[in-house]
């Protein structure tokens, strides 16, 4: 059975990935509305053998729509999400606008799909670094509750959208040509450089990205007392985030047990080849659905073998954004 589908923010990097994933997964729809800002209205997009005209998103865009996939930014979600829900659509929103609202489910289908049915018209997609980090942690947490996580992220340019990816490419060429790099999207040079994540700093010295990971993980795991600390960094990679994750468990656990649990975990693949020093890289994850996990080893600084270190890589545009939303939409059907 198909549905009447709308994509809000269709011309952006995640919007374009929505289309690729809908086609690859043969998502059943009867009609499709492509929505964007007035700047993109009138643009033609080919999809599944048909030409669609992009329409300007307004509060009246959602009449007759069953599911609306939103990736148009937080301000647009706040402006148009409630209108879409009031018109009878279920909004799957990729921004941070509704994630921490008490009445809005925050869903990763591999972790808490039962929350989908609790929606009141809007379902929130978690932050990309949260999804990529905790999909592999969840099966471990179920087997042996996590007490504390220390996360360091290595985040790709794609997290700031297509303009940021373009900026990385342009800057790399400029620097190789001996020119000064042009900085429009990021505050600092991204090519051949690393800097603290560009989200605003909070009073506690942590940036928004770091606090999203803390608060969203607690909500998704339904575990308010899990201790989490985070450092988020931008690196000159196009579109897959990596994370170094240190985990303290309630009970002893071995790297072998972790590998066994992750070898059958949904949405997870292992690349953990110590013999050849071969572990997950952004190029492994780019364009792939799974989160790749490796460097699984005992943290010898934590007593009683209760500590594990691991390394993950995941496609930020795909599982970190568009794929997660489409998986939610599939469960809505």
Walk me through what this model shows.
With 333 residues, the chain is α/β, with parallel strands linked by helices. It folds into two domains: 3-126 and 321-332, NAD(P)-binding Rossmann-like Domain (Rossmann fold, 3-Layer(aba) Sandwich), CATH 3.40.50; 131-315, Dihydrodipicolinate Reductase, domain 2, CATH 3.30.360. Helix content is 29%, strand content 26%. It has nine helices and 15 strands. Helix 1 (13-24) links the parallel strand 1 (3-8) and strand 2 (29-36). It starts with a strand and ends with a helix. The model has no long low-confidence stretch (mean pLDDT 96).
What's the layout of helices and strands?
Layout: E1 3-8, H1 13-24, E2 29-36, E3 44-47, E4 50-53, E5 55-56, E6 67-70, H2 74-86, E7 90-93, E8 122-124, H3 128-134, H4 137-143, E9 146-155, H5 162-176, E10 195-196, H6 208-221, E11 227-234, E12 240-249, H7 255-263, E13 268-270, H8 282-285, E14 291-298, E15 307-315, H9 318-332
Parallel strand pairs: 1-2, 1-6, 2-5, 6-7, 7-8, 9-11, 13-14
Antiparallel strand pairs: 3-4, 9-12, 10-11, 12-15, 14-15
Helix pairs in contact: 1-9, 3-9
